[in-house]
Design goal:
The radius of gyration is 41 Å and the shape is extended. The protein contains 18 helices and 22 strands. The chain has five domains: about 170 residues, Beta-Lactamase, CATH 3.30.450; about 150 residues, Beta-Lactamase (2-Layer Sandwich), CATH 3.30.450.40; about 90 residues, 2-Layer Sandwich (Beta-Lactamase); about 70 residues, Helix Hairpins, CATH 1.10.287; about 140 residues, Heat Shock Protein 90 (2-Layer Sandwich), CATH 3.30.565.10. It has a six-stranded antiparallel sheet. Strands 12-11-15-14-13 form a five-stranded antiparallel sheet, with helices on both faces. The longest helix is centred in the middle third of the chain and has 54 residues. By secondary structure, the protein is an alpha+beta fold. The chain starts with a helix and ends in a 6-residue tail after the last strand. The N terminus is likely disordered.
Length: about 725
């Protein structure tokens, strides 16, 4: 009984619940007057309970609406405003209205009267609207005019719930819009990365038109002279346009004052839903369109234009195209700068070749005039922007060089270089000097002769030589440039293109190959089950089929791993546990002796467990194959003094030739009879994504060691 009393006291404050409670105790009913009072109070409680039941039914109905993920916000508000009157004391004369910015939802009978209750609709601490409930006529006075006190709390509850619903629905719509925009961005980024320039603009425009539900459009860029170049026109509307002179390059002085030139000049979006009157004769009719400049760092670098949507363009369309434009701006700017840099690079290479040729000629002239102009010659020689040299033909002795050449070869001074350096020890490959001499003797000169040379302290760089031979004088003169960075960029580009090609191939072929392999595997299994006890050769061949299918499936998975590697999901791990797992008895054959050098304390790192396991497993498998299943595998884990963690795997196999040490991590490189060379490529990719390093050390006949260094746990 006390719990019921507290409930009635909290919800029905106008009722004397204590007397009701006492009337049911041993005190009894002393008089008819007491009985009549109890009946009146019960009637009051019953009416209050009925009102609360109506409120609960209203709240429940609104909750059901908001729980429906597929219903739109407009439908929720429309149905809510029609549900609200049923919860009020006089529903037949009750009207409701929800007021939001630029939107008003109300019951059909709504009119504003003096008998009104209202509550602010609040979202994220900010008022975004108002909920109003009106009686259409004068009703008996109650707690607050014609309204009960409970009506105030109830309308506040509904307003609060509406605020949450509006916030949630808007967040869901924003999420869906973000997902749509992300899908469009990914498609556009993929086109930029994989499609050549002459096709890229048309491909990107097709995606934009699909997203904007537009029939026509253009996508162009501003070149170095400020002209608008629109390659997309040749693919999209070229054959439909009847303009006499079809151009895709529009110099700035010819632009005129139509919408797209104004959009570029003003760096602002211009749109209209009226037919354009400024199109040239023969042009496709433009019924409605948007002209939007592509702006990067406050500079217009291109143009997006879409036209002839079936319905009018609105602010939502403008925002959607703006998001696409901002995404394109960064990629387009990088692509345009790359094109400019490539053009400048070619020009610089031509200038460099001319400069090298001029310098080589000057060297000869300066040598013959050395006695007359030693000071002038030395100044020009030492301040040249390339390394200058003179070698004796007979034995490769360095006879002369400038300071830049000495630094390029790794010496601290020109004098030290002249005293120690020799051309016969200059090149990494022993036959390169012979090849260069042969070309010099046949042609009298070499230009841009590229080779790897070893610096004084053992480092290897790429150089480009331009030189002339003087047989009568017995020497070679020339100029040399360091092209190591250019070579590295070329190698990265080749590796990137190779991975992109394999990614496209793997994505398109993996599904079909797996289906075919699954069919072969299931057929072999069926035949094996049906042919038990039969010819032993048949069983052997069926086992070979299964083994081949498993091997091919593994290759496909390796290819997918290599081309679709995700960013690592980092977690705090113990490097000992990962290394222990990949060297377990289920991985290492019994014929291989395993040695583990693990410290007693944990070696903590932040890493992705599954990715590291895959990388280490590939390294261990490679080591076991190198030993042909027999030998010793040593796994060592340790904390490094610089805070990094190190794990190494050493095998006693045949070793790796020195010339292959830099190649073993390249995709498709393999010296084994079996396998196609993905294992170590995947391992290197995983280590790179973890900001680590991997290197191979080997000596033929004495096995190989792969050393992996990873950043330690920064949070320990």
């Amino acid at each position: 009984m006390p719990k019921k009393t507290e409930f009635f006291k909290s919800r029905f404050k106008n009722c004397d619940a204590k007397k009701v409670e006492d009337s049911g105790t041993t005190k009894g009913i002393d008089s008819l007057e007491d009985c009549t009072g109890i009946k009146d109070r019960i009637a009051t409680l019953t009416r209050a309970l009925t009102e609360r039941e109506k409120e609960l039914n209203c709240i429940y109905s609104i909750s059901k609406l908001t729980a429906d993920k597929d219903i739109s916000l407009e439908d929720v508000l429309e149905k809510t405003v029609n549900i609200i009157p049923s919860a009020w004391q006089y529903p037949e004369v009750t009207a409701a209205r929800i007021i939001l910015p630029e939107q008003e939802i109300k019951t059909p009978n709504f009119k504003e009267t003096e008998w009104k209750e209202s509550s602010d609709i609040v979202s994220q601490g900010r008022q975004i609207g108002t909920l109003e409930v009106c009686y259409l006529g004068k009703m008996p006075d109650s707690d607050e005019g014609p309204f009960l006190k409970e009506a105030r709390e109830f309308i506040n509850q509904i307003a609060e719930q509406l605020g949450l619903v509006i916030e949630h629905k808007k967040e869901m719509e924003a999420l869906r819009q973000s997902q749509r925009e992300l899908a469009i961005h990914n498609r556009i980024a993929q086109i930029f990365l994989t499609v050549p320039d002459d096709e890229m603009y048309g491909e990107v425009l097709a995606v934009i038109l699909e997203a904007m539900q537009s029939k026509y459009g253009v996508f162009g860029y501003l070149d170095e002279d400020g002209a608008l170049v629109v390659p997309s026109m040749t693919r999209h509307i070229w054959d439909k346009c009847r303009v006499a002179q079809k151009n895709i390059v529009f110099p700035r002085e010819t632009w005129g004052n139509s919408t797209w030139p104004r959009a570029i000049r003003q760096k602002t979006t211009i749109y209209t839903n009226e037919p354009s009157k400024l199109v040239p004769e023969g042009h496709i009719p433009i019924l409605r369109h948007i002209s939007m400049p592509i702006v990067y760092r406050e500079e217009a670098i291109g143009l997006l234009q879409v036209a002839n949507k079936e319905t009018d363009y609105d602010e939502h369309d403008i925002r959607s195209l703006q998001v696409i434009s901002e995404h394109i701006a960064t990629i387009l700017d990088a692509r345009l700068k790359r094109a400019i840099q490539e053009k400048q690079r070619r020009k610089a290479e031509v200038n460099l070749r001319n400069h090298q040729e001029q310098l080589a000629e000057l060297v000869r002239q300066w040598t013959t005039q050395l006695q007359e102009s030693e000071a002038k010659y030395r100044n020009l020689f030492n301040n040249a922007q390339v390394g200058l040299f003179r070698f004796r033909i007979a034995d490769g002795k360095l006879l002369e060089c400038n300071d830049l050449y000495a630094r390029l070869i790794g010496y601290d001074s020109r004098e030290e270089c002249l005293a120690s350096h020799n051309a016969s020890e200059h090149y990494v490959a022993p036959n390169v000097r012979s090849k260069m001499l042969r070309e010099l003797q046949e042609n009298g000169e070499v230009r841009n002769f590229e080779a790897q040379v070893r610096q004084r302290r053992g480092s290897i760089i790429w150089v480009s030589d331009t030189a002339r031979i003087y047989p009568r004088e017995g020497y070679i003169e020339g100029a040399v440039s360091d092209i190591t960075e250019r070579k590295k960029l070329q190698e990265k580009l080749i590796a990137s293109e190779r991975l992109a090609t394999m990614g496209q191939f793997s994505g398109s072929m993996a599904h079909e190959l797996r289906n075919s392999l699954a069919t072969i595997s299931s057929s072999a299994y069926y035949l094996k089950s049906k042919l038990t006890g039969g010819d032993e050769k048949i069983q052997t061949h069926l086992e070979r089929i299964k083994s081949s299918v498993d091997g091919t499936t593994s290759i496909i998975q390796s290819l997918l791993n290599l081309t679709r590697m995700k960013e690592p999901a980092l977690a705090k791990l113990d490097l000992r546990e990962i290394a222990s797992g990949v060297t377990g008895s289920d991985v290492i054959p019994s014929t291989v002796r395993l040695v583990r050098n693990f410290p007693e304390q944990a070696v903590e790192i932040n890493a992705d467990r599954e990715q590291l396991r895959m990388a280490f497993r590939n390294i261990v498998d490679n080591a076991v194959q190198a030993m042909e299943g027999k030998g010793t595998l040593t796994a060592t884990v340790r904390n490094m003094p610089d805070g990094k963690a190190e794990v190494s795997f050493t095998d006693t196999g045949t070793g790796i030739p020195k010339e292959n040490l830099e190649k073993i991590f390249e995709p498709l490189f393999s010296t084994k009879a079996k396998g196609i060379g993905f294992g170590l490529s995947i391992a290197k990719m995983v280590i790179d994504k973890h900001s680590g390093t991997i290197e191979a050390q080997s000596e033929l006949g004495k096995g190989a060691t792969l050393i992996i260094r990873l950043p330690g746990n920064l949070n320990k």
